[in-house]
Amino acid sequence: EVQLVASGGGSVQAGGSLGLSCTISGVKVNNACVGWFRQAPGKEREEFAIAMIGNDGTEYDDSVKDRFLVSRDIAENVVYLQMDNLKPEDTATYSCAADSRRTGSDGTSCYRRDFMYEHWGQGTEVTVSS
Q1: Reduced to 3 states, what is the DSSP secondary structure of residue 30?
Q2: Per-residue pLDDT tens for 16-36?
Q3: Do 50 and 107 touch, CB atoms closer than 8 A?
Q4: CB burial of residue 57 (10 Å; 0-12, 13-18, 19+)
């Protein structure tokens, strides 16, 4: 059984930083595509991952590019999301998800679209105040 546990959320002022962790069991992080998604208060979850990592590299949504960094620790089987220069519009519940059918290598590609991911973790809340 694949399980994902997101942690590290909290409250921060605009311009601050937070680091999120996604601890995964049941699949190796280098045998899956892992994406970070978010859902702002009162809104639907965004359809595209804001950050994604696979064996073919990383990809970011334009809204977080140059501010967020996704990485992974293969030994610990954890995917991280370092968020810098946070803005009030980054306030959301952040979730991690895994697509264990693709790796970004061996002829497969990773995608940011939500329906490509079959394993989801619970969310962790991030609040950015102005």
Answers
A1: helix
A2: 999 999 999 999 999 999 999
A3: no
A4: exposed
97 token code pair: 């998800």
pLDDT digits (tens, 9 = 90+) for 67-96: 999 999 999 999 999 999 999 999 999 999
C-alpha torsion angle, residues 88, 84, 21, 44 (rounded to 10): 30
Q: Give dist(CA 104, CA 44) in Å, integer.
A: 27
CB of 130 within 8 A of CB of 90?
no
Quote the longest CA-to-CA distance of the chain: 45
Task: Tell me which residue has tokens 């601050």.
Answer: 16
Question: Which residue matches tokens 């991911």?
Answer: 117
Secondary structure in 3-state letters for 53-97 = EECCEEEECCCCCCCEEEEEECCCCEEEEEECCCCHHHCEEEEEE
Q: Rounded to an integer, what distance in angstroms lies between the CA atom of residue 66 and that of residue 86? A: 11
